[in-house]
Design brief:
mainly beta; single chain; elongated; 8-stranded antiparallel beta sheet
Length: 135
């Protein structure tokens, strides 16, 4: 896998239409993606002392976090509305290689901060709801 720039990791939000069109959440300076999986052990006395796991079982999830500068874009306004109403919406993560991860997410955290005479910053966290598809 070739090295990729962090700035090429983009968080996009769907517009609610069918088919979905995505807009980049502007102003993201840092982003992070975590793919989580829960193991289901099926170890028995026949395992020879080694732990055995059941493939494809357990709960899988994707967590996304980011921080940036508030610009007031339509994508940010939609994201803030989703956070306030607790709505699960379509999101897409795009990478420099052209690979994407698409799924439905819930905004679990949205924080705003700012200094006098400075920019208004925000941090956000998203948790997946349902399958996340990589393409």
């Amino acid at each position: 896998m070739a090295a990729e720039k962090g700035s090429a990791f983009l968080l996009k939000i769907g517009n609610g239409a069918v088919p979905v069109a995505y807009a980049t959440v502007a102003g993201l300076r840092t982003t992070q993606l975590s793919v989580n999986g829960e193991a289901v052990a099926i170890t028995s006395k026949d395992s020879g002392g080694w732990r055995e796991l059941l493939s494809g079982a357990g709960v899988r999830s994707v967590s996304v976090s980011g921080a940036g500068v508030f610009t007031g874009s339509a994508a940010e306004v939609r994201l803030r509305g989703n956070a306030l109403s607790g709505v699960i919406d379509d999101y897409r993560l795009s990478f420099e290689s052209g690979e994407t991860m698409t799924g439905r997410f819930l905004v679990t955290r949205l924080d705003y901060a700012g200094d006098y005479n400075g920019e208004r910053n925000y941090t956000l966290a998203l948790e997946s709801s349902g399958p996340v598809v990589s393409a």
